[in-house]
Design brief:
The protein has a seven-stranded mixed β-sheet. A five-stranded mixed β-sheet has the order 1-2-3-4-5, with no helix packed on it. It is globular and about 55 Å long. It is an alpha/beta fold and 280 residues long. Helix 5 runs parallel beside helix 6. The chain folds into two domains: 3-77, Immunoglobulin-like; 90-277, Vaccinia Virus protein VP39 (Rossmann fold, 3-Layer(aba) Sandwich), CATH 3.40.50.150. 25% of the residues lie in helices and 31% in strands.
Length: 280
């Protein structure tokens, strides 16, 4: 993958996305000491947090054109977003590979639901492996961004439904319609809102959404993938939440562990938690 974590410390991380070196906040690096302070001068883009969820970018020179991150068959467009995001989460790369393996090994065409789907890397990983995917996100601009990623990845003709919708409301409608899915992908935020400003709070709303997703996959689930970037939720809690979604022997097959990014010298930066079923 065209990504590297170069250094981190003092509450920030230094990353290379393709040709560009980016300096961004990283709360998990607050107590860490930078290994190579001089290296930070190479950053071509630096993000500073402002009020609420927006901040400012300081960019030295023009951004690469095109600026993309490639991972296997996936090509992801990158941008300096007001939130500090760039459009791709490299710690998820192992999950993209895992999704491809689950879809290819199923021996049938899987119907997959991706909730809080953002710019679509997981959607495209499943579609590239042969799945039919329903991609749901509450923000119209990021769904358009995901569709551009599909075109860049030569997957514009893949069987993907691109929907701007509230995750819980969509799942409830699918249950009323009697729809079923073989696999569900969830990457919920700590806080958020739907297209009509419906509030989302992970601690309050995730258990109910997972229960509904369990009913959507009750016939014969092929996989479940849940990731979380909420500091107060660790592997034990996330594993229990996903296990409660499943029934019977499947409950014992859930595995949760930290998501990390690693520097070339092996230093690890915490980047969330993943829970997966099946574990392999």
């Amino acid at each position: 993958m065209q990504y590297a974590l170069l250094d981190f410390g003092a509450g920030r991380k230094l990353e290379r996305f393709g040709q560009l070196v980016v300096d961004r906040p990283a709360p998990a690096a607050q107590q860490a000491v930078r290994a190579d302070p001089a290296r930070w001068a190479a950053a071509g883009a630096r993000y500073t947090r402002g009020d609420a969820a927006r901040g400012t970018w300081a960019v030295t020179g023009p951004l690469p054109e095109p600026w993309c991150l490639c991972h296997g068959p996936l090509v992801l467009e990158l941008q300096c977003a007001p939130s500090g995001a760039v459009g791709a989460y490299p710690e998820q790369a192992e999950n993209w590979d895992w999704l491809g393996r689950q879809v290819r090994s199923a021996g049938r065409t899987l119907n997959v639901l991706n909730l809080f789907a953002y710019t679509g890397a997981s959607t495209l990983a499943a579609a590239a492996a042969g799945a039919r995917v329903v991609h749901v996100d509450a923000a119209r601009p990021v769904v358009a961004w995901a569709r551009r990623n599909a075109a860049l990845s030569h997957l514009e003709a893949a069987p993907v439904r691109w929907l701007v919708d509230d995750a819980r409301k969509f799942v409830d409608r699918e249950l009323r319609r009697g729809r079923h899915y073989d696999g569900v992908i969830l990457d919920p935020p700590t806080y958020g809102h739907g297209p009509q400003a419906q509030p989302w709070e992970l601690a309050r709303d995730l258990p109910g959404l997972l229960d509904a997703c369990g009913r959507l996959t009750r016939r014969a689930p092929a996989f479940m993938l849940l990731t979380c970037h909420t500091p107060t939720i660790g592997p034990v809690q996330l594993e229990a939440l996903l296990a409660d979604t499943l029934s019977g022997p499947s409950r014992r097959g859930v595995l949760a562990r930290p998501l990390v990014l690693r520097t070339a010298d092996g230093r690890e930066l915490s980047s969330g938690v993943v829970a997966r079923w099946p574990a392999v």
